[in-house]
Design brief:
7 helices, two-stranded parallel ribbon, single chain
Length: 193
C-alpha cells in the first residue's frame, strides 16, 4: 500500500512534466521542492489535530502498554518457574492465562489501530483538502510550474539531488499558518525552553 502511495504521485508528476514538455511553447516557471514530512509538526492546524488525536487515544495506548508489561512479567514468571520453583500444573495455569492475555492484547491492538486510523483520516481530511487548495494557489502566485514533494520523490527514487535553494517548505508553511491560523495553536503557544 505504501509503495502505491509513493509511485502514483511520481507517475503523475512524470506525466505532467512530459505533457508540459510536449507542448510547442516553452514552459515558463520554476521548479520547487517541498518537504511534507514536517507538516505534522510545523503546520499549526495539522499539529493541533494530531495533538487532539494523541490526547484522545492516550488512555487506550497506555492501557495496551500496561497489558504488554503484564504479558512480559507473566512470561518471565513462567520461564523462571520452569527451573523447579513452579509445579507443572501452575505452569500450565499461568500459560493459559498468558495465552488469554496475548489474545486480548492482539484484539485491543487491532481495534486501536483501526479506530485510530479512521479517526486520523476523519480529522485530517479537511486540513489535507485545505493544504491542496493552498498549494495550488501558492504555486500560481510564486510562478511554480512543478512542485515536488521531497518525501515521495526521494522514496520513489525520482530525485537523487536537488539544490536546497529550490526548497520552499518554510515559506509555504509560514504563508499557510498566516492564512489559516489554528485556534488551538494560538490558544496554546509553545512553552519557552
Amino acid at each position: 500500500m505504501k509503495i502505491t502511495k509513493l509511485i502514483f504521485p511520481g507517475i503523475a508528476l512524470l506525466f505532467l512534466s512530459m505533457a508540459a514538455l510536449a507542448q510547442n511553447a516553452p514552459v515558463k516557471g520554476k521548479i520547487a521542492v517541498i518537504n511534507t514530512t514536517v507538516f505534522q509538526e510545523k503546520i499549526a492546524e495539522f499539529k493541533a489535530k494530531i495533538d487532539a488525536l494523541n490526547k484522545q487515544f492516550e488512555p487506550r495506548v497506555r492501557d495496551l502498554e500496561q497489558l504488554g508489561q503484564r504479558i512480559q512479567q507473566l512470561e518471565n514468571t513462567i520461564q523462571n518457574g520452569r527451573g523447579g520453583t513452579l509445579t507443572p500444573a501452575k505452569i500450565a495455569e499461568l500459560t493459559e492465562q498468558l495465552e488469554g492475555l496475548k489474545r486480548e492484547y492482539q484484539r485491543k491492538g487491532e481495534d486501536l489501530q483501526v479506530e485510530g486510523t479512521k479517526a486520523r483520516e476523519q480529522a485530517l481530511q479537511p486540513v489535507s483538502t485545505k493544504l491542496e487548495r493552498f498549494a495550488k494557489d501558492y504555486t500560481a502566485r510564486k510562478g511554480i510550474t512543478i512542485l515536488f514533494d521531497l518525501a515521495n520523490a526521494v522514496n520513489a527514487n525520482m530525485i537523487v539531488w536537488y539544490d536546497p535553494k529550490l526548497d520552499v517548505t518554510d515559506d509555504f508553511i509560514a504563508e499557510y499558518n498566516k492564512a489559516n491560523p489554528s485556534a488551538t495553536a494560538s490558544a496554546n503557544p509553545p512553552k519557552p525552553q
